[in-house]
Amino acid sequence: MLRIAVPNKGSLAETASEMLQEAGYVGRRDPKDLHVIDPQNEVEFFYLRPKDIATYVGSGALDVGITGRDLLLDARMPGAREIESLGFAGSTFRFAAPPGRFAEVADLEGIRIATSYPGLVDAFLDEHGVAADLVPLDGAVESAVQLGVADAIADVVETGTTLRQAGLEIFGPVILHSEAVLIAAPTEADGTETLLRRLRGIMVARRYVLIDYDLPAHLVDEAVKVAPGIESPTISPLRDPEWVAVRVMSPRKGVNQVMDALYAIGARAILVTAIHNARL
Fold first, then answer.
1. Which of 82, 114, 110 is nearest to 95 (CA)?
2. How many CB atoms are closer than 10 A to CB 159?
């Protein structure tokens, strides 16, 4: 059986579990369950702390897992490798400090930096040839400067509001753009490719919709320029020989603008349908 590590709590947990269920796998019924067997799909799920998943997968104890790219890099497990980005739980890591204190990474030489991701930050500083004193904290990192524990921080930044409230400003380059990723052990296990293909199908389904519309046949070339589809639209004849029915896969984002453009060309009976799963 393929052994899969799944986050048991935190920002990754709910979406990861939903994605796996949409991909046809059995999920846990009780949030306290730490181990679920899905015999039909020949997989076992192990629900673990997100920070521990890279360790279990990198050691080969488990075959694959869903975690954050930030947690994968912070764990520094040579055996764990990212094999697919999953398109959710995006975050950005930046340095922050009191206004005007620092301007670039080189200014951090010998400085105390508070972070919840010491492995990640240490690797970034090593790449830039900077030696700093890291202060590992488990949350509430933005308070470290005010409380005198550190001179700067390295943390997840969303809107920056929390940093400004703590009297801090962002400086220097982006440390990391992170998101949820599928990671694998050094040796690929049977079933990994099937899991990967299913998850890709879910990601496609979330990004695209089906558009169906009727159109005068002589306008097809013009309409295809507006909505070209993944490969090419499906064109079917209607009872009226001067009209055709068109079906096309189109990005979900901006679909209303596409509908407006198709209507302006002459398309009618325009319908948009959600895609629940796909294989491309």
1. 114
2. 7
CA-CA distance, 32 to 43, in Å (whole number)?
19
Could you identify the residue written with the tokens 């869903």? Answer: 66
**What gap in Å lies between CA 189 and CA 64, rounded to an integer?**
8
- Phi then psi dihedrals of residue 97, to 5 deg: -160, 170
The residues that bridge with 3 in the sheet, in sequence order, are: 44
pTM for this structure? Answer: 0.88
**Distance separating alpha carbons of residues 215 and 34, to the nearest angstrom:** 54
In degrees and rounded to multiples of 5, residue 232 shows phi and psi of -165, 155
**Pick from 245, 275, 276: nearest CA to 262:** 245
**Bridge partners, 94 (sequence order):** 155
pLDDT in tens, 129-174: 999 999 999 988 999 999 999 999 999 987 778 888 899 999 999 9
DSSP collapsed to 3 states, the chain? CEEEEEECCCCCHHHHHHHHHHCCCCCCCCCCCCEEEECCCCEEEEEECHHHHHHHHHCCCCCEEEEEHHHHHHHCCCCCEEEEECCCCCEEEEEEECCCCCCCHHHHCCCEEEECCHHHHHHHHHHCCCCCEEEECCCCHHHCCCCCCCCEEEEEECCCHHHHHCCCEEEEEEEEEECEEEEECCCCCCCHHHHHHHHHHHHHHHHEEEEEEEEEHHHHHHHHHHCCCCCCCEEEECCCCCEEEEEEEEECCCHHHHHHHHHHHCCEEEEEEECCCCCC
Question: Under a CB-based contact definition with an 8 Å cutoff, are residues 63 and 144 in contact?
Answer: no
Give the pLDDT band of residue 279 (cuts 50, 70, 90): confident
